[in-house]
Specification:
The chain is 31% helix and 25% strand. By secondary structure, the protein is of the alpha+beta class. The longest helix has 34 residues, at 5-38.
C-alpha cells in the first residue's frame, strides 16, 4: 500500500488542479447566462467598467444603455457585470440649510 501513496497523491493533485476549477468555471458561465436572460428594458445595470445605466434596448450580442436622460450607448452583452437594484427616492430634498455649522463663518469663530 505504501508503494501506491505517490500515485494516489498525484491523482489527488490532478483532481484539485483540473476538476475543481472546471466546476467553478461552469458555475460562473451559468450565472452569466442567467444574468443575460434576466435583462429587460428598464433594468438598471452596471458594466464591467463601472458605468451605471438602464437597459434601453436589447440585441442578439449588444445591449443599449441609457446612462443619462436621452443619452444611449451600445455595449456588448458580456460587458454587463451585474443587475442593480432600482434607486429608491425618499422625497427629501437637502438644500443644506439644516446642516450643523452651516452659518457661513469658519468653525473656530475667526473672521
Amino acid at each position: 500500500m505504501e508503494q501506491y501513496f505517490p500515485i494516489i497523491l498525484i491523482a489527488l493533485f490532478a483532481v484539485v488542479l483540473f476538476v475543481l476549477p472546471s466546476r467553478q468555471r461552469k458555475r460562473a458561465q451559468a450565472q452569466a447566462q442567467a444574468l443575460q436572460e434576466s435583462l429587460a428594458i428598464g433594468t438598471p445595470v452596471m458594466t464591467t467598467a463601472g458605468l451605471h445605466g438602464s437597459v434601453a434596448g436589447l440585441g442578439d450580442k449588444t445591449v443599449d444603455l441609457e446612462i443619462a436622460p436621452g443619452v444611449v450607448v451600445t455595449f456588448a452583452r458580456q460587458a454587463i457585470l451585474e443587475v442593480r437594484k432600482p434607486v429608491e427616492t425618499t422625497g427629501i430634498i437637502d438644500d443644506g440649510t439644516d446642516t450643523p455649522g452651516a452659518t457661513g463663518r469658519p468653525a473656530d469663530g475667526a473672521f
